[in-house]
């Protein structure tokens, strides 16, 4: 099995709250902001928007109450990252050291992926990277998985996908690619070994 990693919350901790807890003193207002102005539907939109800053500015005009906070999502986006999940990065590098091909399939804006890649060198170590901002489609849209299959030149049944989102895992499995739902308490090394994916 050839391993395909999602990045956010599989290899890099990511949470909007990592940035915005520094901004909001009122927890209820923070949660209202995250469920309206900066909800995950909008985050997904920015992951394919050709102009990240422009998308944020348009959103700020639509939500004037939170305009300053929304602009921070562009200016200080890197602070949404909580650092690498070291044990999973070690598995990525173990696979690479054994000569295995390793791929990435992740939702990131082109601009934010460049910021993350500049800070975390392991993001350059994949054989193939299918990033939503680069291809103009986000998971769980089936088309982004099809782009992965085309680029790696493998059948879905030959690949094993790791993602923190149930919706993305289900979309993967619907297309014939096995998947692991990574979440707290999951021993990824054990899961990969059980599927014969580790050397």
Strand order of the largest sheet: 5-4-1-6-7
Biggest beta sheet summary: 5 strands, parallel
Order of helices and strands: EEHHHHHEHEHEHHEHEH
List the uncertain runs: none
CATH classification, class level of the largest domain? Alpha Beta
Please indicate the count of domains.
2
CATH superfamily of the largest domain: HAD superfamily/HAD-like
Report, as a whole number of angstroms, the end-to-end distance: 10 Å
Beta-strand proportion: 5-15%
Helix content: 40-55%
- The CATH architecture of the largest domain can be named as 3-Layer(aba) Sandwich
Number of helices: 11
Q: Shape from CA axes?
A: globular
Number of strand elements: 7
Q: Which structural class best describes the helix and strand composition?
A: alpha/beta
CATH topology name of the largest domain, in short, is Rossmann fold
Radius of gyration, in Å, reads 17 Å
Name the average pLDDT: 97
Structure commentary:
The chain is an alpha/beta fold and about 200 residues long. About 45% of the residues lie in helices and about 15% in strands. The strands form two sheets. It has a five-stranded parallel β-sheet with strand order 5-4-1-6-7, sandwiched between helices. Strands 2-3 form a two-stranded antiparallel ribbon. Helix 10 (about 165-175) links the parallel strand 6 (about 160-165) and strand 7. It is globular and about 50 Å long. The mean pLDDT is about 95.
């Amino acid at each position: 099995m050839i391993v395909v990693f999602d990045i956010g919350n599989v290899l890099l901790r990511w949470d909007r709250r990592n940035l915005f807890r520094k901004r909001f003193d009122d927890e209820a207002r923070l949660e209202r902001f995250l469920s309206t102005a900066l909800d995950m539907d909008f985050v997904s939109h920015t992951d394919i928007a050709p102009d990240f800053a422009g998308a944020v500015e348009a959103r700020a005009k639509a939500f004037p109450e939170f305009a300053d906070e929304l602009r921070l999502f562009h200016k200080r986006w890197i602070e949404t990252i909580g650092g690498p999940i070291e044990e999973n990065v070690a598995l990525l590098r173990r696979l690479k050291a054994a000569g295995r091909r390793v791929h990435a399939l992740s939702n990131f804006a082109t601009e934010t992926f460049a910021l993350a890649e500049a800070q975390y060198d392991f993001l350059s170590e994949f054989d193939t990277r299918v990033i939503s901002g680069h291809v103009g489609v986000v998971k769980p849209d089936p088309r982004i998985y099809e782009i992965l299959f085309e680029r790696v030149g493998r059948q879905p049944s030959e690949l094993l996908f790791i993602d923190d989102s149930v919706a993305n895992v289900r979309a993967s499995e619907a297309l014939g690619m096995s998947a692991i739902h990574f979440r707290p308490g999951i021993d990824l090394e054990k899961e990969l070994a059980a599927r014969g994916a580790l050397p």
